[in-house]
Amino acid sequence: MASVILGILLVLVPLPLSAKAQTGGSLTLGRSLMVNDRNSSWLSPSGEFAFGFRRMARGAHLLAIWFEKIEDKTIVWSANGGDLAPEGSKVQLTADGLVLSDPRGRELWSSSLNGTGLAYAAMLNTGNFILASASHVNLWDSFSQPTDTILPTQQLDSGAALTARYSEMNYSAGRFLFRLQPDGNLVLYATPTPLDVSDAYWATNTISAGRIGFRLIFNQSGRVYLTARNGTVLHIVTSDEVPTSGFYQRAILEYDGVFRQYVHPKTANSSSAWAKGWSMVSYPVPPNICRTMNRDIGTGACGFNSYCTLGDDKIQRPRCHCPPGYTLLDSKNEMNGCREDFVSQSCDGSRPEKDQFALHDMLNADWTNSDYEVVTSKSEDQCREACLADCFCAVAIFSNEQCYKKSTPLINGKMDPSLDLKALIKVRIKNSTLTPAGNSQKKNKNSTLVIIGSVLLSSSVFLNLLLLLISYLIYKSFRSRDSKFSRPVQINQTTHMRTFNYQELQEATNGFKEELGRGSFGIVYKGVLGSEDTNFVAVKMLATRTGESEKEFEREVSAIGQTNHKNLVQLLGFCNEGQHRLLVYEFMSNGSLADFLFGSSRPSWYKRIEIACGVARGLAYLHDHCTRHIIHCDIKPQNILLDGYLAAKISDFGLAKLFDGKPNTNHHWEWFRNMPISGKVHVYSFGILLVELICCRKNFEPEAETEAQIVLVDWVYDCYRDGSELVLVEGDEEALGDMRRVRRFVMTALWCIQEDPALRPNMKKITQMLEGAVEVSVPPDPRSFISSI
């Protein structure tokens, strides 16, 4: 009986405004707002809400609605979170509705009118911005197009949704969705995901006959509840009594995936029991997202390879952490996930690795649905041994004589006392993949010194003179013929790489029998080290003995010998014996990216994403994490190799430069314009590689369908400028279903290929742009720099 009375009372509370809207402070057609104008907002009659531009970063502005009279001016609605407006942008009220455009006239956002005859716009005291006809009928309003927030008097009808923003200060669409489905179920989802109730991490389950959800209401008394079509209250989302008089209210799906309701005093009153800022009321939905979210695919409450704990602050915001041996992908966004801070265990069997790893204990932790194998273990020690011996095992959980082995990326990570489990986290003991080996190459004795020694031991003056003359002639002949080719190459021995003699590598390759590939400086052969037939290696032999090839050998050993990163091909050792110069690499079973990308079938979009991010991380490491910055100078699909799991690794450092900050002038666009070389060189090359990955074609295709498509980077910019990025991935269903990321990748590539190096971001920033950790602003035309030179 009590619930029926409560339902009647809730329904009797005033509902949202009717179609007839307030006209106070109305705006006529032609009115506009410019970024950075003094009058850059339109106020409601009460002055409590404003519509206009908010500065998010330098040169980046958000068209939004916010609370005007409180200090932090909290945003409640936004239009262009995924495409921020640059300086000089304008929003104008036209006969077709609101239109937001940049200084070049490119449309960034527009409203879609539900009818014709637009007469005016108005910012209402409720926080609703409306476009209305002369008869005061709303043709469009912000309440009907919510972003992440709802306000008192606002409602969500069937099919409507709130979308969480990406992060606290990034208003582009994030990972979570609060949706009233057409079947009547009010659900919380992590996106992208099939809209299936089984995949929701919270739901009202209002789908049975007579209990089908129809409308979500936030009434003026501060309650949020779900009703049926006849007005019956089916579910109360936020149930606590909240103050209404003298307080602002809002309910929001926050970037952490939790729906919360807040109140804020309208005036600073020190005697009030409420805090001066926003205070959460009622319980969050769900109460503990760390425990609630348990997805089969994708990330959990936190990103990949991380785990979630409930915060101890007032709103109990979930916190994301990295397990031992892992670091955050983005230090500014802990929800973005973690990456291994070491080279993972090798599965190719070319070198023993079990003893190079240990297992760290974590109590009350688990990554559900990351299991790939469950084996029976009588003890925890047996489970430890099973994980250490398995190159795929990243984490093991021992429970009830079962060993649950988990592989990366780890999903649904959580730490909670209720779990009562112990997780065993595999980490490399020493973050090194190369074991120092003794120099197996005996020092060569110079035949000239032997002759000189013989002369000194001779008792015959004549013979001494004769031998001296012969020694001199041999020495001169040797120097003139081979001095600049057979000198001992200076290798930095601090790299602790193994040195091979020529005979070892000749036997390992069966007389250099099986060729894997060739380049300008050498031929690569397949080999096997040791008695194991699976210890494959790639042996690169310099093809010609020239001064340039000697420098190439020095550069490659010096450059890659100092590196240690999962996205770089590992240099296992070298041969520097007499005239022989050879390099021994880990074997990459899937060949080059060029073969993978430009073959007869189009590779998976998601695999191309992984490859792009992997190459970006490898380049960022070369430039930012080595003792001396390394500039590769030859990034192209042929020099990106793929291992057995199609993980991308950068190879062929023959043209690499150890950069000490002093400019050089060589290679790429900078070389053609006689401009200084810097780390921005491989940024340009990466941009070319990225558009090739997006479109699965080479940058230059003389046989393209149209002349405009011959040069890929020019065509990509034209498509971006015209808003027709769909054409770039035509026929690629995976990419077409992920157009927000496609657009972000295109914009990132266009920043990379700016002809002015000063405009190109660094590789660390590019990695963040690809991963969605930072906003990608509108890139200028890459060709605009040419005309200014």
From TrEMBL:
GO MF assignments: ATP binding; protein serine/threonine kinase activity
InterPro entries tied to this protein: Bulb-type_lectin_dom, Bulb-type_lectin_dom_sf, G-type_lectin_kinases/EP1-like, Kinase-like_dom_sf, Prot_kinase_dom, Protein_kinase_ATP_BS, Ser-Thr/Tyr_kinase_cat_dom, Ser/Thr_kinase_AS
Record localization: Membrane
Binding residue positions for ATP: K540
Chief site of localization: membrane
Keywords attached to this entry: ATP-binding, Disulfide bond, EGF-like domain, Glycoprotein, Kinase, Membrane, Nucleotide-binding, Receptor, Serine/threonine-protein kinase, Signal, Transferase, Transmembrane, Transmembrane helix
GO cellular component: membrane
CDD domains linked to this entry: PAN_AP_plant
Protein name: Receptor-like serine/threonine-protein kinase
Organismal lineage: Eukaryota, Viridiplantae, Streptophyta, Embryophyta, Tracheophyta
